[in-house]
What does this fold into?
Amino acid sequence: MNFFKRAWLNVWAKKGRSVLLILVSSAILMFVLAGLLIQSAAVKATSQAKADVGATVTLSANRQAAFKKMQSRTTSSKSSKMTLTPVKLSDAAKVAQLSNISGYNVTSSTSVNASSYDTVSMSTGMGSSTGGGPGGMKSSTSTGDTQIDGVTATSLTTAFSNKQSKITKGRGITAADKNTNNVVIEKDLASQNNLTVGDTLTVKEATGDKDKVKLKVVGIYKASSTSSSAASPMSTDPANTMYTSYTLANTFKGSKYAGTADSVTFNVSNPAKVSSVKTAGKKLINTSKYSLSTDDASYQTVKASMDNVEGFANKIVWLVAIAGTIILALIVILMIRERRFEIGVLLSLGEARWKVIAQFFTEMLMVIVVAVAIAGVGGKFVGNQLGSQLVSQSATTTQTTSSSTGQPGGGEPSGNGGSGMRGGNGGPGNTSQTTKQATDTKLEVTVSAVNLAELGGFGLAITFLSIMIASGGILRLEPKKVLIS
Amino acid sequence: MLKTEGLGYWYQDKDQPLFQGIDLEFDVGQSYAILGHSGSGKTTFLSLIAGLDKPKEGDIKLNDRSLKQIGLTNFRRHDVSIVFQAYNLFTYMSPLNNLLTAMAITDAAHAGDKAYARQVLNDLGIGADLAERNVQHLSGGQQQRVAIARTMCCDAKLVVADEPTGNLDEDNTKEVIQQFQKIAHEQGKCVIIVTHEPDVANQCDHQFRLENKQFVELA
It folds into this structure.
């Protein structure tokens, strides 16, 4: 017979008290586990967000340097024009070699005039030929009524990857469309002109020889209302935007634009590495002509949201652990006070004090083992409820914070939107998109063996601390006072 | 076997000791009764010779070794068994487990021997069915017999009892005292009983009365 057996006999004989202790301990551990689960789920969700949300680095003409150059010329001569250097695809290819670059999209925008079809007029009555918004290139300030967005692939553009636009018929532009006259047109434009996949339409170049060029419709896309409403007053109706290969857009712009682009957007496989990619990329380009800008707003929004959740979960774990220790210590102190006679008898028999403490620890350990099992079952439910509540709250907080700091709003080029003729259309749309992504980020709360081991560790620590706090009474107890006085 | 040398004890004021300069000797195979009126200090004396407290003055020696040398915990574990007026059994255990627990803690020769423990209980009138019940379901007399059985199972040569019959009726008192005599005479242990009942004291081999801070042996 040793203190293990005494502990077992006590736990078994006092079933009511043991059940109550199990319930209290289960409740404490359930919240500890919920915190641990949310914590690990938030870490998982953050790393998942890295893969899902993505981030980009955009190589484009250095407007700031060009503006300064223009200003210095203004002081020395009468006439001056801001000249932006198109991005050379050979330079882009160098940047694409950097690690963490998973792919890139070449964007070249211009405008043409409708020839065999009618453009969609804006309902605001601002006219249809307003092209050349801020951020456009020198050559693309021509005033065509149809916006041409030359890309490597439509799927790589922000509008399509964010699902603001989607292909409804046929297919999008792909890398295979390079050097072809294939085009993807907007649904409204198609229905207005009875155009469908396989049809051809004719456009007239807005610059140079103003030749007529036949284009083949390979796909029809639908632009979301968000895009339309986000369009600046100076832009053409989004329905008049056609997607082509960037090579075709360059052809419209003129022969000197061959092998160039307005901008090149690189997809960064690990959004956390955006800054290092930008730094490494700057070493490969002529920074007086080109600039590298980053766009990891989506990732940062999701990350901030998950960081909030993780931080809160961390606090839950520690607060519950500390509160649990205090509660259990108080219960154990009361329990020990009730059992002073028993302790006195043990001491009168010559039992070592540490063995008396060990008996109480073993009793609590038996209780905790059952409580861990109960918490393991209940903790997942509590974690799910608490986790989804936390995610929605923290997404709202993140949205409020980003709105008040004015982060989005169109100043930064976002994807291809900022560098083309419709510069700055992505602002408000992106805010709602990233917030939606943060809200959509679901915490997958699952109880793993590691979680249970962690919980067991916490349970053990809580038990140990509470017994240590309560055992002061045992160490001071004089058997004579209990048994004889 | 057990000797007290100049033993003295007081609570707060040294000038008002409960007893002082006590020189007594207790031998194995004998039973001793310590009498005295309430508050005379007989229970305090018992707590000193049972190793539950330290004397303020003088020394207690077991086989010429001071308790200070032996250590009170060691002394309680191996050399003394205590029987209390309130029985002081483990209330969440059966009589059998009470005995087994005490035997395990005191490293008794029969530690873990259930059959031996059952036999001792049986000899004291605690049959097999009672031996497995929770002690709280036993009468006062039965509980005190379990407490006595506990001392019999342990190997300590010194048995001290504090008013062991205080809560018992006449029949149970007789039976309990007989058991103490058996422990002294048949098991060869030294039994010291603190009591205020002259009838109980009369059945012991020696009687001491604590009066005027001194122990007086009665004829």
